[in-house]
Specification:
alpha/beta; Rossmann fold; six-stranded parallel β-sheet; three-stranded mixed β-sheet; 37% helix
Length: 286
């Protein structure tokens, strides 16, 4: 299949581009600098030239603090641009794959969220992503939405966030003996390599349109993950649990943002356990 990939420099996009040849796809991948998703005219011309069978959008405005400061930019990228991509794909009968987040939920559920749970975002980031979900589905009935959480991958992680949680712990351990980590948040995480494989497997199985939760199997607190990193790397770092009551720098965040895979699992697509993924990722780092 011919795929047009948006956001190739991100943690997810980089892995999709890297392994797509394994699945026999012809991929045309573009970074934000090469193809800004908010530039409708350039986007339309590129789709007309490439003539893809599938468009995968991994681009997003996902730095939570910046979303609060610049809500118009958040909605331009996470909602309006997504609507435009979906509309273009619909006109040309192209399947659209779009990534969303567990932060569309409010975190009040006791267990992990399933695909049919009703979103209720708490902040601009989650609200803009949820609006993007609605727009993509309403403008293109042949849309697959991938909700995920806690993505990590690559040597540098996410450029926008200047890393990822695993890299943050490793970097802090260089100069600190103790590190405070939120104890109240229960999360799922997703190794970008596994996530990319899961998405391409869904496409291989010709998954129907709809919402899919893709994360590494299992869930726990950020404290538990940090402690596993310290243990596996034998770091001289004490992790100090701190209950921040679901508030990050004045912004409400979901206390529970773990996801349960039911839709993809029904097709036989399941990602490995999070601890196994963490071990594999750490093995790729210096």
């Amino acid at each position: 299949m011919r795929i047009l990939l948006l956001g190739k420099n991100g943690q997810i996009g980089a892995q999709i581009e890297r392994i797509s040849n394994i699945y026999g796809h012809e991929i045309h991948a573009f970074s934000k600098q090469e193809l800004d998703i908010t530039n409708f005219d350039r986007l339309k011309k590129k789709i007309d030239r490439v003539r893809p069978e599938i468009v995968i959008n991994t681009a997003a405005y996902h730095v939570v603090l910046n979303c609060e400061r610049y809500p118009q930019k958040a909605f331009n990228i996470n909602t309006l641009a997504v609507r435009n991509i979906g509309d273009l794909c619909s006109q040309k009968k192209i399947k659209f794959v779009h990534f969303s987040t567990s932060w569309v939920f409010d975190g009040d559920k006791e267990g992990p969220y399933v695909e049919k749970d009703i979103p209720n975002p708490l902040q601009i980031y989650g609200l803009s992503k949820f609006a993007g979900e609605i727009a993509s589905i309403n403008y293109n009935s042949d849309t697959i939405i991938i909700r995920t959480c806690g993505v990590f991958g690559g040597q540098r992680g996410s450029r926008a966030k200047k890393g990822n949680f695993i890299l943050y712990i490793l970097n802090e351990a260089k100069n600190k003996k103790t590190l405070e980590i939120s104890s109240e948040q229960i999360v799922s995480v997703a190794y970008a390599e596994d996530l990319a494989s899961g998405v391409l497997e869904l496409l291989e199985k010709k998954a129907s349109s709809g919402i899919y939760h893709l994360v590494n199997t299992g869930y726990c607190s950020w404290v538990k993950i940090a402690q596993e990193i310290v243990k596996l790397r034998r770091l001289n770092l004490e992790i100090v649990p701190v209950d921040r009551k679901g508030v990050f720098k004045g912004i409400r965040i979901p206390v529970v943002s773990s996801l349960k895979n039911t839709s993809a699992k029904s097709l036989g697509v399941v990602l490995p356990p999070w601890r196994t993924a963490l071990i594999r990722y750490l093995a790729t780092l210096p």
